[in-house]
């Protein structure tokens, strides 16, 4: 499967000078990237490099400095009411789907909650469609999160994110806890969803082999900064920094051509 060609129109998401501090300690500094519709950016780096912090800051879970612009609209300069609606267009799929789902709620209720204010029958129909979109039976709506496998819960988390009809999905290490066969199924699903819905995606991972099968472009993070970024084939095929080369050398038989 080949990654979709990179788009060159105006970015759906533009992050500029993003910085996050905890007290006097700066953990992310000066992060900038753009994302076009239908494009996937792989955000890579070692654990603790700041990848997940960037994700949480972009979706508004952390206070930050810098600009986050969605379709030309600066999210940091909107009223609270307007911002709430705009934030729905950028959805985070977390690393641990079980922790993000209320164990007391059925899967259907959890997804319906993200649909917003719709008539009950319409919500039920939408939940069934979303579950089928992520290759789960509509009957799964009546079950609770603990009744599913890790891979199935990850699909449920993706369905919940899609319920908001986002333009951008940020997938934070969503395959790291999955075995290879389940991981392949989730990645296949992401490819299909991106092609069908023209989703823009930030795919966060420390696994460069997985990123090589998903991303069009790559940004390499180290100590809270992006140290290198560019098209996948360029960064993986001829890295400019010693750090990127070190990461790539640790991955056996990596496909640097931008797809499989």
Automatic annotation (TrEMBL):
One GO MF term attached to the UniProt entry: ATP hydrolysis activity
Gene Ontology process terms (BP): transmembrane transport
Family per record: Belongs to the ABC transporter superfamily.
SUPFAM superfamilies in UniProt: P-loop containing nucleoside triphosphate hydrolases
Protein name per UniProt: ABC transporter related protein
Biological source species: Conexibacter woesei (strain DSM 14684 / CCUG 47730 / CIP 108061 / JCM 11494 / NBRC 100937 / ID131577)
Domain ABC transporter: 13-248
Pfam families associated with the record: ABC_tran
Keyword line: ATP-binding, Nucleotide-binding, Transport
Alphabetical list of PANTHER family matching this protein: D,D-DIPEPTIDE TRANSPORT ATP-BINDING PROTEIN DDPF-RELATED (PTHR43776:SF7), TRANSPORT ATP-BINDING PROTEIN (PTHR43776)
